[in-house]
Fold:
Amino acid sequence: MSEVIKLRKGLNIKLKGSAEPVLETLSLPATVALKPTDFPGLTPKLSVKPGDVVKAGDALFYSKYHPEVVFTAPWGGKVASVNRGERRRILEVVVETDPNAGSAEFKKGNPESLSAEEIKGQLLKSGLWPFIKRRPYGILASPDEKPLAIFVSTFDTAPLAPDCNFIMEGQLGSFQAGIDALAKLTDGKVFLGIGQKSVFGNIKNAEIRQFSGPHPAGNVGVQINHISPIGKGDVVWTIQPQDVLFIGKLFETGRVDFSKVFALTGSEAEKPKYFQTIVGAPVSLVTGGRLKKAGYKQRIISGNVLTGTRVKPENYLGFYDSQVTVIPEGDDYEFFGWAKPGIEKFSASKAFFSKLFPKKEYVLDANLHGGERAFVLSDQYEKVVPMDLLPVFLLKAVLANDIDKMEQLGIYEVIEEDLALCEYVCTSKIKVQDILRTGINTMIKELG
Amino acid sequence: MKFIKDIFLKTQPHVQKGAKFHWLHSFHDGFFTMFFVPKNTSKSGTHIHDYIDLKRTMGIVVLALVPSLLFGMYNVGLQHYKTIGELATAGFFDLFLYGLLKVLPVVIVSYVVGLGIEFAFAQMRGHEINEGFLVSGMLIPLIMPIETPLWMVAVATAFAVIFGKEVFGGTGMNIWNPALVARAFLFFAYPAQMSGNSVWVALGKNDTAIDGFTGATPLADAAAGNINFSVADAFFGFIPGSIGETSTLAILLGAVLLIITGIGSWRIMVSTVAGGVVMGVILNIFSGSAALSPEVAAYFSMPFWHHLIIGGFAFGAVFMATDPVSAAQTGKGKWIYGFLIGVLAVLFRVVNPAYPEGMMLAILIMNTFAPLIDHYVVQGHIKRRMKRAKISA
Structure:
């Protein structure tokens, strides 16, 4: 193991309701669904129609511009419905699960003895390919490109994030198989970013780099910036640890196994802990009967409080998420809220008395705590971005639609999650993640 | 609490677009959001947001100004009674009350005029009211000589808000510090009324000054080569000057609050002081030069650190130069920006006696150059990034 990369900038938001290290296995949900909206930039084309019977690992839809990239059923059964939104956009493809549906069969084998083409073919066919994302832009990896390297961050520093060490218990063998498969897909290296206490220290076939520091030290984008920053024309791939497991299990068993561990977290969860279910399970499966009974509104988030998606119990969990967070909605007026001493108000700034209690955990709600304004303060964003980057200038370049400047100021290196803390700390309540995605979309449109 | 909320909620429908009192929308919204943090929740992006907002930020700056304001009131009374020779018979409360009655109208005029214009612009543009003027409205009175006629305060405030801020798009878009624009406007538009020695001490119609009274500020004296103020008086603030700028101690109290809360940039404060010290030392070194007239040589040789406690240097460094909108935005840029303010302020004071208050002009000039400084800092950043990108590829 090489030296520790110490990051100073950043912020740990101490929320109440972190998951206890207890795992409960949930029963098979009645329905599961894949949501094309989970994949930025995807134009989906359906492969099935309602009434069709599928096995786990059979395609439900595919990418219009890369038909070889298919999205497969996490569990077999009958296709129940295709839910569409505005302009007939596909929102969900729902499958009624059948406990005995079984899985499509794939080739078993040690990834080390398979060729890159065989591995790629298998990942594409089984529907595991979409778990691989590419930087720049944080979109689906294209099967035509060869990445300079593949990055996996094995720890998550986001608020209330699940503990990857706990999830990985007893499964390191499959993880190793997954890494072996990934290593074949790049001419460069597979980099593994690990945290302070890590079970991943002995993984082979990968370069291990240890990181320490507050959030976003666990973000793969930050780690790439410190290991081998990407410039114009560079492409690297990223994948999350639980998704590496899927790949490993595919080659070990010849079947797809989409079992995934989710952490139920947040101040509104009765008993925050871990649950085993499958990708695409309904939100209510995890939250049903497990939230505090409250007289106020609650907000359920698939993902963490910084980057997650707001969902309702009848929706389905996000494809890439491994966490469900529930916080109070906070849609109420607060009398002279801005003038109170603020002992119970966690803040990155030093303008509240809560600063005197650095160890305390807080209940934070979804209120904006103020109105939206123009950029007024400087130096706020830089403090929470541990990268060689000037976030405000990058965002202003996006607002001015100046492609050259965006490129020069590093739009290739960041996606929403990397600047999410800027949005949290912003005094002017500027929608940093929305602005950044607009910029990324412009880049994709103009430069491809 | 609840009944105030009910009043706002009940009147809300009547000020919406299309309703009868739609032209009061910004007014209503401004006060409603001041009394109650709105119930708006996150619609996209992060689900949680920091409790800090612009109201809190500006509120803390106003709080930091309170020591200067209170001391300013006291000092206005002190200078008045001193001048009419009745200091011995006047008690603390006499002094303070006199000052309060003189200063309060200036503060009220500044806020009423400034906020009125802000409300009107917010209404015209359909924006929310920006809190920036809460601070500007307090800064403007504090940098006025006490005898500035109220109508001048009103005109200067209007000029500052309209031409110093709103024409650029409002708070966050302005190039210059609005409060300094107000001061500079008066300085150049009404030079006869705004300079000289009679504006610094409040005197009633029937008051007569004692013999030997000049009313000159230490700064004006120094510019004339007459350096004879007491250092302790200048530090504690018992000298004539603009309302809020005389007490270095009160300003330091404000500075401590701004630095502890992280709301004022300590980088700018430190580098401004450093710039002033460096320029002061340079002047000290050249004070022996034969080319200087005796008055100028005297000012040259004034101990360099005296510059920090007379005139508006301390006030400017803590409350004016640190305005985040008109200052440099990059870390390195802030060091350069502050340092040059300090250098220019002392240079203007000493070398150009036509403008004794060099701080105001130094900050306005550096406000103008701040975007340029940032431009070069950003270019340097980009160059470094480009180099790095080549190595990795």
